[in-house]
User: Fold this.
Amino acid sequence: MPAMHEVDYRIYGEEMQFVEVELDPQEAVVAEAGGMMYMEEGIEMETIFGDGSQQQSGFLGSLMSAGKRLLTGESLFMTVFLNRGMGKQRVSFGAPYPGKIIAVHLAELGGELITQKDSFLCAAKGVSIGIAFQKRLGAGLFGGEGFIMQHLQGDGWAFVHAGGTLYEKELHAGETLRVDTGCVVAYQATVNFDIQYVGKIKSALFGGEGLFFATLRGPGKVWLQSLPLSRLAGRIISAAPRTGSGGKGEGSILGGIGGLLDGDNR
Assistant:
């Protein structure tokens, strides 16, 4: 595995954060296409096929890396930001929606981290960004957001985004936590992930929490989020004016009556 680039960083903001990465000459960081906020003079941007860790293995390695990324719903391409200047230069990446940015040093986590496929922001060049399929059939059929995860490998810095409020917990050996699948941001590879049925048909049909939830069993560290992207998107869609509403605004009398009639009494 190629040596990781030892980047420095600083996280700014409270609710809408961004991370500023400081690069020494010839250091680089790899990120999802479209995630950059700003970069200083001297930094060159290059689009690559697959992730940056596979570029030395030839076309076949790049093709396999890109194919894995396609399965996670991500772009086939990533962007490398390389400092070709004489001194330190900075590049920053913004969070996609309100929440917190987590900085993790993979060497301190055993060299591996499993993350939700839409939570990865950027990482030091050399970090491998692959996929991790859940091994159990239940997770495969019903896991939803928790079925296909991203697998980060290396010994450098990686940056992950959590929606809403971030909760970090260290699970002891055998300790179990039951979580909504979308609320799982990341966990160490030592943590066992599975999907479990809620158990009661009444709760499954009318509880509003879905038929299944994730179980995380220690040992290892887990990161949870209070506002998954899917939940945020669902609430925005449900709050949007319906087609054929005739342009009635939320503040109008007709709009209020309509909300009462259809049970949308927010």
